[in-house]
Amino acid sequence: MSLKNYRNIGIAAHIDAGKTTVTERILFYTGVTRKTGEVHDGQATMDFMKQEQERGITIASAAISCQWKDFHINIIDTPGHIDFTVEVERSLRVIDGMIAVFCAIAGVEPQTETVWNQADRYKVPRIAFVNKMDRSGADYFEVINMMNQYLDANAHAFQIPIGEEENFNGIIDIIEKKAYSFNENGYTEIAIPENYIEQSKTYRTKLTEALADFSDEVMELYLEGKEISAQILKNAARDASLKLLITPVFCGAAYKNKGIQQLLDAVVDYLPSPVDVGAIVGNDVNDAEKSIRRSPSIKEPFAALAFKIINDPYVGQQTFVRIYSGQIKSGMAIYNSTKGKSERVGRILRIHAKDRIDITEAGPGDIVALIGMKLTKTGDTLCDENMPIILENIHITPPVIELKISPAVRKEQEKLGEALRKLSNEDPSFTVRFDEETGETIIAGMGELHLEIIIDRLKHEFKLDVVVAEPSVAFRETITSIQEMEYKLSKQTGGKGQFAHMFIRIEPNIGKGYEFVDLIKGGRIPDEFVTSINKGIQKTISEGVLANFPVVDVKVILIDGSFHPVDSSDMAFRTCASICFKKAFMKAHPILLEPMMKLEINTPDEYIGDVVGNLNRRRGTIESMRRYRKGSQKLNGIVPLMEMFGYASQLRNITSGRANYSMEFLKYSPVSNTIQEAALKKISEKRKEESLD
To answer: Do 585 and 598 share a domain, yes or no?
Structure first.
């Protein structure tokens, strides 16, 4: 099949917009499934995890292949809950186009904006599908207005609905000038109803005028007052869509099987093929400033990106990859340029959600799972060893909530460690660290639900009974002033001693992370020991100094030092660097940084005073308010994460269950002296209690 007939698409939306139902209907109409699985009864094909079926939400992005007419479509269904936004992030990194699903009642919701911004970052062309047109309160044109107002989408209706709410029973294709009526057997083409003729003409003119801004051919024909064919408008619309200049909007009611076939046609008509996307740009392995291009051709050197890992109980680790160029065959050796090591492909699988089909080879545009990858992680580049390339990695937001976890049975500590290793391999937004001082295992994630799912998976997938402490905030540490420090490590215990000496300066490095500068001259400290100093400081930074939280935004300048030709060693300089850095850090006016969350609350008008008052007591600030829908307001603000534990239940109580909210990580900000003192005191007391236990 020609690459022009490939479509690699993602389906994304806010939670409860009906995204998974849309996907299930697509699979049904493309012949992948014989019956439509439903979210509410736990039978959705794409939601195959136990936790997804129980909660009725998508947690992990799932991949599946299907055929529509003469086109091969790879679909990635993605979560709508903010705690699993990394799943959306890594999916958007490898897809070529996207269907953004909107609820016809709610319109643009918090996670919609997040996904839209993520798609903007990766320059992913998209079409919109306004779902649930048959529900009370559905307003297709208001959703389009919201898309333009809040997303700057330049959205235009490519269809208009026939009937409203429970009377929604058809659509009009304004480009083709055709109408379709939906029935139990699918749909039938009908004449445009008389009472919709003028409306369809009006919207066709609006669309034509919009496309004339991007197409000279459309502009010329429009100004001359000539009839413009459907094909000319389609070609112009496709070109504008691929250039992110316009967002085509379609409508339907997926649960009632309305509008799905037309949506599939739109995927083919307006979303890009790998050929349209063109060459992927990466960097030279040995020179990060040098760009390398790989065209979507089987004749090009092999290049692919690993974007997801799943540990399957039957086949082991599945490494999902998007192939951009060249060809891969089972048994073939490939090069992981990120790790600088080679791996051998055992099997290649085409994935149908939880089912797998063995294939012998795969090429440009394919999304497949590889078996046998032992070193490869999310974001790694796989390529031809003789023609290496490094592709752009996947942006991962840092985790913001921590839990202390331990096995209920002490002898299962090793089993717990292995399970957590597998889960962190699967999910780069989930991290695990071991506190050597307290002997505790600490897990961190994107939110309470995220960690709740992790705990649930430990119990059911890995058969582990675990003890979990209360969640805590993942603070960061930094400094606010410049400090110089000299330290000499000199120990003599009979045999070979330990000697290291250094003089460093540490400075705030706001927004730039950790930076190490070597000013040593004349070989006063050999290069290998300079490397040891850097490693010693990095280890200390990861462990923290003030309260055992990672240190961020610090520049360390190595000014001077000395060594002993016999007693100096790698370990001596690492130890000396750690002690020297800690002493300097504690004198540089260290502070704690707390995670600040971007918050969005949808609330009925009558509860605004209570909601704002409650948020103020949580140190939150309201930045904007806007009309959400009739009788409701959308509040946007910023709030410290440490104040938000238990907020969901409190919000339900003060609004009688009628308000909802979402939040996502925004930035780290300094805490006040009062809060820092209280936080440090609480941390100290908690550790004392735990040591007594």
So the answer is: no
> Has residue 394 been placed in a domain?
no
Q: What is the dihedral of CA 505, 506, 511, 514, to 10 degrees?
A: 90
Closest by CA position to 87, among listed 33, 30, 47: 47
Residues 570, 597, single domain; the answer is: no
- Separation of alpha carbons 368 and 390, rounded Å: 20
Q: Is the dihedral of CA 521, 524, 528, 530 positive or negative?
A: negative
* pLDDT tens column, 160-213: 999 989 999 999 999 999 999 998 778 999 999 999 999 999 999 999 999 999
Residue of 294, 321, 269 lying closest to 99 (CA atoms): 269
Based on its alpha-carbon atoms, the radius of gyration of the chain, rounded to whole angstroms, reads 28
DSSP 468: E
Same domain? For 163 and 216 the reply is yes
**Has residue 485 been placed in a domain?**
yes
Please give the Cα distance from 581 to 430 (Å, whole number): 28
Domain match, 597 and 615 both: yes
**Token pair for residue 310?**
């799943």
- Is residue 483 within 8 Å of 584, Cβ to Cβ? yes
Work out the angle at residue 546's Cα, subtended by the Cα atoms of residues 544 and 550, and round it to the nearest 5 degrees: 25
pTM above 0.85, yes or no: no
Contacts of 631 (CB under 8 A, 6+ apart): 604, 605
Amino acid (one-letter) located at 600: E
* Other CB atoms within 10 Å distance of the CB of residue 445: 25
In which domain, by residue range, is 551 found?
Answer: 480-589
Residue 306 within a domain: yes
Q: Distance of alpha carbon 122 from its chain centroid, rounded?
A: 12
- Total residue length of the chain: 693
Give 586-621 pLDDT, tens digit per residue: 999 999 999 998 988 888 888 999 999 999 999 999
- Is residue 70 within 8 Å of 5, Cβ to Cβ? yes
Contact 350, 320 (CB under 8 A): no
What DSSP string runs through 384-436?
-TTS--B------PPP-EEEEEEESSGGGHHHHHHHHHHHHHH-TT-EEEEET
Q: Which two tokens stand for residue 568?
A: 């100096």
| Token duo for residue 52 | 């997804």
Same domain, 559 and 508: yes
Tokens of 317: 């680790």
